[in-house]
Request: fold
Amino acid sequence: MKIASRILLLSAVACFLFPVAGIAQTGPDLENGFKHWGSYDSSHIDTVNLQNGNLMLHAPLLPGYPQRGKLSVQDVLSFTSKTWQVICAIDNSNNPACGWFHGGTGVTLNRPLGFGLQRTINVFYNGSSPIYSAYGYSLTTPDGAMHQLGATVTTNGVDMEFESQDTTGYHVVMSNPDLSGVPNLATVTDRHGSRFVAAFEAPHSCGALPYNKPLPYAGGSPNMGGGYAPMIDDIPAGSQDCPQTSSPTQVIDSNGNVMSLGQLGQGIDTLGRVMPLETISVT
Reply:
């Protein structure tokens, strides 16, 4: 009994001296897709989340066919009643803030190897040149599950490596920074050792510069024969946030088998064949 009390006391002292930051989990009513702590009732074509009633359709559209290694091709029609997505922006205190927003509904065509990688680009205009940064990284798997990514490696103030915060084992490495200093090439490794390569657009595609209305002339308009130009330079022009998404163009399994996923052209499987449903003819 005394030993147990001492252990409990030492644990409490350690927690007090060495606090560990905690990350809140997503509310159960917002959960989408399959999580390893979830409870589900499913059939071959659909699944119901018993925690929040989410209905997920995953009906095979074409029969799957064998591939080399651990990769597979199986086109499915997907639908989920929890179409939530994460959108991030800078709040009034200049801190990143992320929230859940409801997206559109409808049946989509998905493949098990595809996913969406999201981030937000912040552009700050200091009057001479824009300053770019990226934050709010997350990953959405084909089943609709959102996985928040936490930075694990930061180099010169830029987040370069991430881990999924829900213990699903996704590891993301960013590389290939452009002149803005923001890395645009993502390599995602899952818990099976497969590597997915995805590329973001350059940050300068964020859009037009914010426009600050110039200060008025003092003493009347110069067109009326008078007036003085304002002596105050009304910069910086402010900042803007632009969400970005990307999907993998290539996947390599742990044995070195390569599959092109067709984001920039026709998809090619591990046997060199064109993926099914790459083109659709309308008659």
Notes: DSSP finds one helix and 17 strands in the chain.
